[in-house]
């Protein structure tokens, strides 16, 4: 598989065409240095989460009150918290919780949004009216407040936090998907498919979804930072993961009492949230170059 | 007298597979005349016009041995100077007025704006005068209208009025009539023709339509793959020698000469080189 | 083959209702090629869209092969018999679907078997060859895209092909290739064409008869020979002829 074989404008097989399209995308993505950096960070995060028990230097739950609130040192690289637990180990284990929350939200919310938005845009008429009014109702509440209300009603836990975040973030995707659908719906290629007798379900799934999905993916990657922050916010307020589960937002919350004298307790998880959010933003930017045909490439 | 002198103009864009040259060594002189630039899509005709106006955006690169407006080099001028030049001395009319007029500003204000940047005297009177000059019957009404309230042909006339208000030396018209119906097209062309002639401007008329250019211009450049393959007086177009020009002429269906099959242009790679 | 009787098409509701086509009647016998010419907004493309059911706000009588059609729904048999080629080949192919996907989906929808062999045949028929099978639209030129669009229209083996300005977005040399291809296909397959165009010389070249339209009405019907000879009855058709010809005069007589 040489470069020429992949980049040819005249692929000879379905496989060559697919791989070629992927390689083109990768080349575009690679041209964006920051996006590659974002990808590297996220891959590292995935590896860290996967191998957390093996790479974390100490037990994240082991308390050592004699060693509490120690600054970063050779023994505790990022210091210890109020109960003498190793912050680095807690961050490493916390990455699992964070990844679980954002990963699940990123799977649920856009799918709901895609489904509701494209159906509303494609069907039009009263279906559109009903679905979009429901969307408007959800959009009318501030996101975090709505999530708070859900968690408060359902009881604090990671699963409920995920549910609350997913339920509050789908409307934006539904709006986006509907707007895309409205422009695609009247395109000539849709008319041409209709003339071949294609039914609405086929048009929706085979023709409209592939075009909406790419802009949704970009949007999700860019929203990811916000989702992490919301998850951390819920954790901070004690409505997400429950102690002693190491969750980044909850860790910041624990550290806030000591923030002036023992800054590292809150700052270390804060840094982790910052780095991961930034990585997602870079990644989203690179994905936009690849997936968004309106991005101004020739 | 030579208004614009172009020697070995080149426009290149970096691509994944190396450098793509959209214009490859175009040379011509423009006097107070109507010069047609004809070619198919991808021939580099529009890019030539954009390069003269300094509208090639990076990473595109423009080079030339010479690009002079009345003896003064305008090659890769800094943007502020170029902006002063555009409109005042070289203007451009684009294909579709829908995309070149500001939708939230009345027609009159737009003409006054373009005039105020470069001209002297009462802009309002001048704008009305220009609207009358492009044969708009009720200039006062059109003056207060928004672009969406006028038809395509009217929009193109407004564009011409706007571009000619500051009395430029050179007008570059890029497919100014291809979005218009035939009847409107002829009117717009007549107006353009009269104004250019009366004001002694140089006109570069970029088009894909050989017949139109032959009728409308004095001299024609035929471009293929970024190069000028043939230059000849418009009246002699039927006696064109280059096989590409002949091929283009023959591939057109014609009302006065029915054929069973249209002649198909056989492109030759030698046309890309000298 | 096609018979249109007293067709009216409108958009919107009163008081904003626009009557795009008003009491238009014409018929096209089997194997003929019929042209609809007129300026933009004359309603010529709207007629095609009403026939195919892409617009459902119409009244009148449309019959294809003596079968009446109604409203928006079209039968399977209709889709097999009538196909359309659109004006802009850059807008009529799905940007993410390869040629292979477009043609195989079409063949599948039309209930065809032996899809691999048929795709090869279709690509040969439109002069592309199987080398083009796995390309995406962005890897094709305008002319090649229009060939793919024609292949898609031919997949169902239709008898009536509606051509909506099929070459107006293309360069003249490519236009000649596509017009020749369409003429060959019509001869080989005994197709019936209805062609919409604003270019009188293209219509004169392709069609046997034509209708001149203005503001939603047919102003005049004539045959290609009258068009070439400039024998128009109505004033508007004469005007249109002169306007189209006026920039030919300089050199066509030379």
UniProtKB/TrEMBL annotation, chain A:
<dbReference type="InterPro" id="IPR035906">
    <property type="entry name" value="MetI-like_sf"/>
</dbReference>
<feature type="domain" description="ABC transmembrane type-1">
    <location>
        <begin position="95"/>
        <end position="284"/>
    </location>
</feature>
<feature type="transmembrane region" description="Helical">
    <location>
        <begin position="34"/>
        <end position="55"/>
    </location>
</feature>
<feature type="transmembrane region" description="Helical">
    <location>
        <begin position="97"/>
        <end position="124"/>
    </location>
</feature>
<dbReference type="InterPro" id="IPR025966">
    <property type="entry name" value="OppC_N"/>
</dbReference>
<dbReference type="Pfam" id="PF00528">
    <property type="entry name" value="BPD_transp_1"/>
</dbReference>
<dbReference type="InterPro" id="IPR000515">
    <property type="entry name" value="MetI-like"/>
</dbReference>
<keyword id="KW-0653">Protein transport</keyword>
<dbReference type="Pfam" id="PF12911">
    <property type="entry name" value="OppC_N"/>
</dbReference>
<keyword id="KW-0812">Transmembrane</keyword>
<comment type="similarity">
    <text>Belongs to the binding-protein-dependent transport system permease family. OppBC subfamily.</text>
</comment>
<dbReference type="InterPro" id="IPR053385">
    <property type="entry name" value="ABC_transport_permease"/>
</dbReference>
<keyword id="KW-0813">Transport</keyword>
<dbReference type="GO" id="GO:0015031">
    <property type="term" value="P:protein transport"/>
</dbReference>
<feature type="transmembrane region" description="Helical">
    <location>
        <begin position="220"/>
        <end position="242"/>
    </location>
</feature>
From TrEMBL, chain B:
<dbReference type="InterPro" id="IPR027417">
    <property type="entry name" value="P-loop_NTPase"/>
</dbReference>
<keyword id="KW-0472">Membrane</keyword>
<dbReference type="Pfam" id="PF00005">
    <property type="entry name" value="ABC_tran"/>
</dbReference>
<dbReference type="GO" id="GO:0055085">
    <property type="term" value="P:transmembrane transport"/>
</dbReference>
<dbReference type="InterPro" id="IPR003593">
    <property type="entry name" value="AAA+_ATPase"/>
</dbReference>
<comment type="similarity">
    <text>Belongs to the ABC transporter superfamily.</text>
</comment>
<keyword id="KW-0067">ATP-binding</keyword>
<keyword id="KW-0547">Nucleotide-binding</keyword>
<keyword id="KW-0813">Transport</keyword>
<dbReference type="InterPro" id="IPR050388">
    <property type="entry name" value="ABC_Ni/Peptide_Import"/>
</dbReference>
<dbReference type="GO" id="GO:0005524">
    <property type="term" value="F:ATP binding"/>
</dbReference>
<dbReference type="InterPro" id="IPR013563">
    <property type="entry name" value="Oligopep_ABC_C"/>
</dbReference>
<dbReference type="GO" id="GO:0015833">
    <property type="term" value="P:peptide transport"/>
</dbReference>
<dbReference type="GO" id="GO:0016887">
    <property type="term" value="F:ATP hydrolysis activity"/>
</dbReference>
<dbReference type="GO" id="GO:0005886">
    <property type="term" value="C:plasma membrane"/>
</dbReference>
From TrEMBL, chain C:
<dbReference type="InterPro" id="IPR050319">
    <property type="entry name" value="ABC_transp_ATP-bind"/>
</dbReference>
<dbReference type="Pfam" id="PF00005">
    <property type="entry name" value="ABC_tran"/>
</dbReference>
<keyword id="KW-0472">Membrane</keyword>
<keyword id="KW-0813">Transport</keyword>
<comment type="similarity">
    <text>Belongs to the ABC transporter superfamily. Glutathione importer (TC 3.A.1.5.11) family.</text>
</comment>
<dbReference type="InterPro" id="IPR017871">
    <property type="entry name" value="ABC_transporter-like_CS"/>
</dbReference>
<dbReference type="InterPro" id="IPR003593">
    <property type="entry name" value="AAA+_ATPase"/>
</dbReference>
<keyword id="KW-0547">Nucleotide-binding</keyword>
<dbReference type="InterPro" id="IPR027417">
    <property type="entry name" value="P-loop_NTPase"/>
</dbReference>
<keyword id="KW-0067">ATP-binding</keyword>
<keyword id="KW-1278">Translocase</keyword>
<dbReference type="GO" id="GO:0005886">
    <property type="term" value="C:plasma membrane"/>
</dbReference>
<dbReference type="GO" id="GO:0005524">
    <property type="term" value="F:ATP binding"/>
</dbReference>
<dbReference type="GO" id="GO:0055085">
    <property type="term" value="P:transmembrane transport"/>
</dbReference>
<feature type="domain" description="ABC transporter">
    <location>
        <begin position="2"/>
        <end position="240"/>
    </location>
</feature>
